[in-house]
Amino acid sequence: LPVVAVVGRPNVGKSTLVNRILGRREAVVEDTPGVTRDRVFYQAEWAGKDFWLVDTGGWEDRVQGVAYRVAEQAEVAVSLADVVLFIVDANVGITTTDEQLLKVLRRADRPVVLVANKVDDQRGELEAAALWNLGLGEPHPVSALHGRGSGDLLDATLEAMPEEGRGSAVDRGPRRIALVGRPNVGKSSLLNRLAKERRVVVDEVGGTTRDPVDERISLGGKDWTFVDTAGIRRRVLQSQGADYYASLRTRAALDRAEVAVVLLEANEPISTQDLKIIDMVLESGRALVLAFNKWDLLDEERHAQLEREIERDLGHVAWAPRVNISAETGRHAERLVPALERSLESWDQRIPTGRLNAFLGTLVAAHPHPLRGGKQSRILFATQARTRPPRFVIFASGFLEHGYRRFIERRLREDFEFTGSPIVIGVRIRE
Ligand code: GDP
């Protein structure tokens, strides 16, 4: 379900508005099995459409300063929400705290609905109109307390909600691949092998006339874009600083790609440079496929050794699909395609909030968070805030141990099969 977050400085009437929107429905909210939910997330409905309503006022913490909690609150809301309801007090106008909030909201690419609260009569509507100059579009005058204008506000909120399935793979064009690896692993040979007898279109990257040239290659009946193939085909001079430029180039390629194929050499030990390149991929948040090249040179002894090296050095990316190929002979090169598809599918995957919390509820019930100083952490709720790569936010009260977060991450990976994609887990703690 889409998530609507209610944001505003203290005392503008967030909770009153939340209660107004929920009406009597509030009592039947806690329907996710096993998860103790605090008064923060509510399931709401308007005009036949269900959504989650988040009262970020519940996150206001009394210990730190106003500026801190306002920024934090907005950040939480933005990381979660499909739509943000930004509430201001029409009687007071815009304060410096409102402006701080606004700054955070502006940076984020989310639809914002501007709510002018405490407009109890017609005179107040004039004051609300002054809020046009915030540049957030039409201010919606409401009285959360009396209900005035709340129907129109909800209509506007539904309108601001993104269409389901927006940005689906269909209209995105060919998926973008960065083929990376240290010099001489066979990137250029693999590219030539893949491009052989297939339609290759060379694109200049929009706007730049410099090096980065992409190639479109048709594989498995689909077009793919290999980014910065000029960087692969043009041999880097083995002079001083070549490593530095190669690594800049890798970074730039990753930046523009969706999935990385890290090419490694099967007949040579896994090197620190290989591991560095893998780290760069992990940092970039791109989907990952590992390809071991020059398989034709492998003998049995080296094969056994390689398996041991993989176990020792690549445990942290054990979730990435692995293909063993030879660019020279063409062996298994076609297996790259299903691996790429699998990884991108995971990278795009979105777990519905209900399923996620059902999973979490069962998990937490079966394996409770270990006590700390006799106290129990409570996992309140989780939601997937983003895809590409999947990013989850877990809300807990008190504390959440690093080890327990890793445990949740591992189980999420297994249960929802995030093969080939990194996943990110953020934690929000309520005192
Ligand atoms: P790049 O620097 O990663 O682009 O590597 P190249 O594609 O230039 O390959 C480096 C060397 O390895 C060349 O001499 C290739 O012929 C050789 N090579 C590439 N792939 C294979 C392979 O699968 N098997 C064997 N035997 N040699 C390969």
From TrEMBL:
GTP 2 binds at residues 181-188, 228-232, 293-296. Keywords: ATP-binding, Cytoplasm, GTP-binding, Kinase, Nucleotide-binding, Repeat, Ribosome biogenesis, Transferase. Its EC number is 2.7.4.25. Residues 2-165, 175-348 form the EngA-type G domain. It comes from the Bacteria. Belongs to the cytidylate kinase family. Type 1 subfamily. Belongs to the TRAFAC class TrmE-Era-EngA-EngB-Septin-like GTPase superfamily. EngA (Der) GTPase family. Associates with the 50S ribosomal subunit. GTPase that plays an essential role in the late steps of ribosome biogenesis. This is Multifunctional fusion protein. The lineage of its organism: Bacteria, Bacillati, Actinomycetota, Actinomycetes, Micrococcales. The gene is der.
